[in-house]
Amino acid sequence: MASSFQFLLFSLLFTSISLSHAQPSFRPNALVLPVSKDASTLQYLTHFKQRTPLVSVSLVVDLGGQFLWVDCDQGYISSSYTPARCRSKQCSFANSTNCGNCFSTPNPGCNNNTCSLTPDNSVTHTATRGNLIQDVVSLQSTDGKNPGPVGTVPHFLLTCSSTVLLEGLASGVKGMAGLGRTPIGLPSQFAAAFRFHRKFAICLTSSTLANGVIFFGDGPYVMLPKVDVSQSLIYTPLFINPVSTASAYSPGDASAEYFVGVKSIKVNEKRVSLNASLLSFDSKGVGGTKISTVNPYTIMETTIYNAVTEAFIKEATSMNITRVAAVAPFGVCFSLKNIGGTRVGAAVPPIDLVLQSESVYWRIFGANSMVQVSDDALCLGFVDGGLSPRTSIVIGGYQLEDNLLQFDLARSRLGFSSSLLFRQTTCSNFNFTSNA
Ligand SMILES: *[C@@H]1O[C@H](CO)[C@@H](O)[C@H](O)[C@H]1NC(C)=O
Ligand SMILES: *[C@@H]1O[C@H](CO)[C@@H](O)[C@H](O)[C@H]1NC(C)=O
Ligand SMILES: *[C@@H]1O[C@H](CO)[C@@H](O)[C@H](O)[C@H]1NC(C)=O
Ligand SMILES: *[C@@H]1O[C@H](CO)[C@@H](O)[C@H](O)[C@H]1NC(C)=O
Ligand SMILES: *[C@@H]1O[C@H](CO)[C@@H](O)[C@H](O)[C@H]1NC(C)=O
């Protein structure tokens, strides 16, 4: 078992708890979290210890989520939580100017003179208002190879929700872990608390039986057998959508989500003809390409979806692959009969998301493009997003699995590994056995 470096809590009423004082005594260079895939919702789940006494809380991983939010109405028991008082440093740090009182039974989610934010269930697109609070959060550190001693953040900022906001989330889950680009997103708070690089990486598992991994901080990110994935990443700029994509927001708020600059799409190395203006933001922040862990499959605006699927069908047909009836939510399915296998999944035409130049592309192989829906059929794992969706392309979970993505907030760039299957490893190959 890992030893715990608990930080002495300043629980005295008169101690001013400034953010800069909230430094833990143990300074790891990186932290690690396990991430499972829920078989029924296809959500990616993590859990880590919180509160006093420490309890493990299960959460849905929301890559573009603004912050950590949890249900405070039911079962939030902690002697260490403190509400963020109106006009405090905490409120301004979290950009919360909304202040209020509460007239029901006092609990972590119900306090007077406390500022609030809008926790967002990005699965159901529902947002409510909830108090900003601080409490203890505790994660295992890592040297990139194994988990190590526990690092504790005594005054982690999170938002309370009511129980109803959990609707649509996997069973047993108590909230969402937002990894988005805000000062109080998990990556920024951990980087500030432990003074490590404002970088984090996600490596989602394709298996509902084995854990993938999230690293906070810089590499190495080592998967068995000794593959340091951080050494061979391809980089592309991240873009900020100036208009929030949250379910509820104030005018002027930017999006906390991670957008990349897809310039064109190729199928079997042939360029697909697209309306390029859909690939950038318009003045209302509509358009562009983002990465999401709450959408199980990639979603494309209808004209893009049609162009890509038509090109794919044409290329697959020339390989003697035959179509069969579609199985929802997919629109294009094939018989397994003439489809061979490769190290990176079904032998189908590769799909390239071409980024800042022709030579920088995210290649999607069979393991990330084809979803097996029955004993004899595979479907192209893309979904039609309708005409004029908020974001033209949402790269979803299935396309991210067994690829490592590193988000570098300071340099505003994404590093991606392409399929780890090429390197004979997967995202479920992090060695979660603790050192020592
Ligand atoms: C907030 O203050 C009001 C008025 O003083 C009081 O009625 C209410 O119970 C307080 N709420 C909490 C949660 O303490
Ligand atoms: C804080 O909110 C204001 C207005 O809603 C917005 O313009 C600003 O970008 C926000 N700042 C951060 C750091 O989110
Ligand atoms: C391309 O997309 C933009 C944005 O939706 C739209 O205004 C325009 O009419 C489209 N152009 C064509 C040729 O379809
Ligand atoms: C497809 O099938 C035809 C007829 O059976 C055959 O001649 C051709 O070589 C096949 N092509 C491929 C790419 O397998
Ligand atoms: C996993 O890590 C533990 C602790 O360092 C080590 O004893 C074990 O050999 C590792 N497993 C593999 C398969 O390398």
Automatic annotation (TrEMBL):
Subcellular localization: Secreted, Extracellular space
PROSITE patterns linked: PEPTIDASE_A1 (PS51767)
Keyword Cell wall biogenesis/degradation annotated: no
Origin: domain of life: Eukaryota
Pfam families, per the entry: TAXi_C, TAXi_N
Similarity field: Belongs to the peptidase A1 family.
Name this polypeptide is given: Peptidase A1 domain-containing protein
Lineage: Eukaryota, Viridiplantae, Streptophyta, Embryophyta, Tracheophyta
